[in-house]
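Before relying on records like the one below, remember that each one covers exactly one chain. Contacts with other chains, cofactors or solvent are not represented anywhere in the record.
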Amino acid sequence: MWTVVMYIGQVMKDVLKLPRPHSPPVVKLETRVDAEYGLPSTHAMAATAISFTVLLSAPSRIQFQFEVGLLIAVTLSSLVCLSRLYTGMHSVLDVICGALISATLLFLTYPYWETLDHLQLTSRLSPIVVLTLALLLSYTYPELDHYSTTRGDTTTILGAGAGSSVGYWVNEQLGKTFEPQGVLPVPLPTLTANVLALGTARFLVGVVALVGTRQVVKTLSLWVLYSWYRVPKNDTSARRRREIEVPYKFTTYTAVGLVNSMMVNRVFVLLGI
């Protein structure tokens, strides 16, 4: 859902081309994305989609009080939405539209989540369809009359989503799905010092694995592409060209998604964490 709503939001920005709030009167605390358009707020879309997708899907796997989960989901998504106003990145309309678009997508797709999940994990065509579709959407991203980070960011998201999807499919074929032990839904584990320590260890191992994967694959893919297109290695601006930006970001983050979904859990098991 994160991949879906982010792609839709990014494309809408560059098709509608509605500007971000003017400064002044707002005080912009972020300047990296000045070249991007405003409506809808993809942060609001992502926060709403992630919070409520977890809330709606978790009861089938973990026992918890739904009202508490709802309060947490509303609080987290609201804080992100308010932060976009505070940093001067979006208007109230941008944020409201972003949250409403995600809510609409969740409402329309929720009845089909189980079916889509089953197809994604079991169909022989799943890896081919996911990789082909994600790469096609990356290459056909709307062109602008100026450079913006939205195409690269969108390619990053599509690559990570595609890599994770393929990794989960491979796990399913190998019978290594790392399901919670016991009859689902399982009780929510008690938050103890040992659980916190294990969680911290997993986090640190995961960060090292994913950052290392990103650095290695990014370096190799850029070296290959620069050599292929005969671009000087010190020409960092060449990374903005579609024929270089799309394949290097897609390859890099597809690899990150694969490592995240296939390798990291296996490392946790080997390390006993």
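The chain has a mean pLDDT of 90.
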